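Late entry, evening session. Most of the bench is empty. Finally got around to the prediction I had been postponing all week. Sequence below, unchanged from the version circulated by S.P.
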Amino acid sequence: MLIPIRDINPRQRFPLVTLLLVVANALAFLYQLGAAPEVQQALANRAGAIPLEISTLRDLGAVDLVPPPLTIITSMFLHGSFMHIVGNMWFLWLFGDNVEDRLGRVRFLAFYLLTGIVGALAQCFMMPESPVPMIGASGAIAGILGGYVMLFPRARIVTFVPIPFLWPLLPLPAWIFLGLWFVGQFLLGAGSGVAWMAHVGGFLTGLGMVRLLEYMPNRRL
């Protein structure tokens, strides 16, 4: 498992939207931690993206916080564990700042939400009859990674490689690091409990969408 430490890719201005997204996800997770287990499960059921609800456009049980398929948006701000949110938010902070810097704040937020939506829809397409709620920002984070590698393929990612007794830090080009990350999604498999198709769908959407947004007028908003 390769662990990114930092990127060698200076930005021109402070990543305000990236920071606000990290804070929003952190606050939502703190609320989850403070709730009783049954409340946490009820929240996942009412705010998570349930493929069967998305494919049929109707609630299965208790009324959702928002009508499906809008639960895709609410699901992006919930996470299942400490490691889940830490991993997602670290990747968002590490790679999102440069993508936001290039696109501008408004277009970056649209990019984040759209790639997350497409990623979730890709997962729903793969398992449309699943009643299990999906939660997490992984589809949107994957979109950020796809956008980053398209915009900055040669940027160096200082990467921790867990080789015993050596523990090297290697400055890998973004296209190598993120290419290996993308290939690794196919090794997770359907039984891993990870919505890996959301990662794949988000990443490919980020690859295809980021240039379109970059060259739209007023991208520095």
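Two things to note before I forget:
Residues 95 and 163 are 24 Å apart (CA to CA).
The chain has a mean pLDDT of 92.
Will write this up properly tomorrow.
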